[in-house]
User: What shape does this take?
Amino acid sequence: MRKILTVAAIVLGIGSAFGPVLAEGAGIITVTGEGMVSAAPDMASISLGVTTLADTAAEAMAQNNASMQAVMDRLAAAGIEPRDLQTSNLQLQPNWVQDDTMQTPEIRGYTASNMLTARVRDLAILGSVVDAAVKDGANTLNGLSFEQSNPKPAQSQARQSAIKDAAGKATELVTAAGASLGKIVSISENGGYVSPMPMLKAAMDEASVPIASGEIGISAQVTVVFEIVQ
Assistant: This one.
């Protein structure tokens, strides 16, 4: 008898260690819940580009460096801190040309390009920041997105809403089947996203850019497993 009790204790211990032990005769239902919270953004990120053309590679790089430095200086004067400026994707490429009169393609000049991402923590100056960058050499605007500096409170609300949504769906399904919803067996988060993220992409050849930040949506998605009480 002692051996039988020992084996039973081991089995129960394994069940507790590796997963929940369901009530006898209970089934489970798995549902996905979603939650969305709207919030006003309090900062923005701008992706600017400087592209220059020249006869030689050295000239293209020199002109690009000068233009990018002028853009960064102007943004600093507009109130953007050094920690909020980051360059990326520096490229130098030959311009290959070939027409019907050529046996082989040849290089006619060089193109240098560099990207700059600027984070604007004061939305009141966002329009003037874009204008300032364009005046000093930024000839492409590759993206403008709005975000929150501290999204955690909104994310927490979205998660709570997602849990309620999952419980509501599960209750509706189980009740329709003539049973009752039991306790939660497990919860897993499937990730969330922020939408919309307003984007602008265009060649910039004039100033006075009108910008509206609107609202962003912060969502959460969870998968919840419930017991079904028969």
